[in-house]
Design a protein that fits this description.
Blueprint lengths: L7 E2 H7 L3 E3 L6 E2 L1 E3 L1 H7 L4 E5 L2 H8 L7 E5 L12 E4 L2 H11 L16 E2 L4 E2 L4 E2 L4 E2 L4 E2 L4 E2 L4 E2 L4 E2 L4 E2 L4 E2 L4 E2 L4 E2 L4 E4 L4 E2 L6 E2 L6 E3 L4 E2 L4 E3 L6 E3 L4 E2 L4 E2 L4 E2 L4 E2 L4 E2 L4 E2 L4 E2 L4 E2 L4 E2 L4 E2 L4 E2 L8 E3 L4 E2 H12 L1 H13 L1
Parallel strand pairs: 4-5, 5-6, 6-7, 8-11, 9-12, 10-13, 11-14, 12-15, 13-16, 14-17, 16-19, 17-20, 18-23, 19-24, 20-25, 23-26, 24-27, 25-28, 26-29, 27-30, 28-31, 29-32, 30-33, 31-34, 32-35, 33-36, 34-37, 36-38
Antiparallel strand pairs: 1-3, 2-7, 21-22, 38-39
Length: 349
């Protein structure tokens, strides 16, 4: 996160985005990133805005103050805006992501301070510049890497390992034996390393299967608020480097998620499922246990997966099937009445 009051020349922002600069940017210092709607409402400071389409251009044309820089894709007509400086980029979404990093003025949770209301066991190891907020707890034998921040009320369990430059926001719980790589971000309410749902039937009722594995989370993973990642039964549950998991997700025991996956909110992944690299999973997807989802596959929102998905394919529906089959099924379903009338007419003839 950037320090408050970060300022950039419009030309500097264009260069940082790798954009092709059009017009004369001048020497105005940009202090804010705003949406087109925010610009229309009247931004008080010199600002940069990302225009993704004609509606955004119309909103900017109605703004009381022109932007210091407009970031737009090639081909978008910006003539209604007059002589404003423009940075033409290949990917406006990527440009937005980079701008939010450059112009982020939110306070950083990593201050390097250790509150006297935090607790670290004498056998715990804390790296240089570790932040412990009030109510943070680091249990026996745990290791916390350099410049990592442990938020208010968060717990690093016994023997857990947290890498460098990680952020554990408020009320995160890491159970014993969990291992995080570097630059991992866990948002509030995350629970990593709880027992999976495993029981054996017996004449006297359910007998708990104790989960003796752990959880291993790779570098640069981000996990959303109130998501749970269960520990493995015997082997570890694994989340690969660069994967991003949204809020309110459930990752069952023994699951193995590959690198650079994107998993949207309310997704539930059953135990022992294997997900390849670069998989994109939409919101509210349910994946049964012991399923394999191949690398590069895509699952549409609301999909219910009960069998293996081949690499690179896009599936949708409940139960899940290849996207083209699902779309055709919807088309035929919408024509059932018409088809039924034809069949009835054939019977009469």
């Amino acid at each position: 996160m950037s320090a408050e009051g970060q300022r950039y020349l419009a030309a500097e922002l264009a260069a940082a985005l790798g954009g092709r600069l059009e017009g004369e940017p001048g020497d105005v210092q940009v202090t804010r990133l705003v949406s087109p709607a925010g610009a229309k409402a009247g931004a008080a400071e010199a600002y940069v805005v990302v225009a993704g389409g004609e509606a955004d251009v119309a909103a900017l044309a109605a703004a009381p103050r022109a932007p210091a820089l407009v970031v737009a894709g090639e081909g978008l007509d910006l003539s209604p805006l007059g002589a404003v400086p423009v940075a033409r980029v290949a990917d406006t979404r990527l440009a937005l992501a980079r701008l939010t990093t450059l112009l982020d003025t939110r306070p950083s949770p990593a201050t390097g301070e250790r509150s006297d209301r935090a607790y670290a066991h004498p056998t715990a190891t804390l790296g240089e510049g570790v932040t412990l907020h009030p109510g943070a707890v680091v249990m026996a034998g745990a290791r916390v890497g350099d410049r990592t921040a442990v938020g208010p009320g968060s717990v690093v369990g016994e023997g857990a390992v947290v890498g460098a430059d990680c952020v554990l926001h408020a009320n995160v719980t890491l159970y014993d034996g969990v291992r995080l790589g570097d630059r991992v971000v866990l948002h509030s309410g995350c629970v990593v390393g709880a027992d999976g749902f495993g029981y054996a039937a017996s004449p006297t009722g359910a007998v708990k299967v104790r989960h003796l594995g752990g959880v291993v989370i790779g570098d640069d993973v981000e996990v959303g608020a109130n998501t749970a990642i269960d520990r493995g039964t015997l082997d570890d549950t694994v989340v690969g480097a660069g994967t991003k998991i949204d809020n309110l997700c459930q990752v069952g025991h023994n699951v193995r998620i590959g690198r650079s996956c994107l998993i949207a909110g309310k997704t539930a992944i059953g135990g022992s499922t294997v997900i390849g690299d670069g998989v994109i999973i939409g919101g509210a997807v349910s994946i049964a246990d012991h399923v394999k989802v191949g690398s590069g596959a895509r699952l549409a929102g609301g999909t219910g997966v009960s069998k293996d998905v081949p690499p690179g394919e896009t599936w949708a529906g409940l139960p899940a099937r290849p996207y083209k089959q699902w779309v055709r099924g919807l088309y035929l379903q919408d024509r059932l009445e018409e088809i039924w009338r034809v069949i009835k007419g054939m019977d009469r003839r």
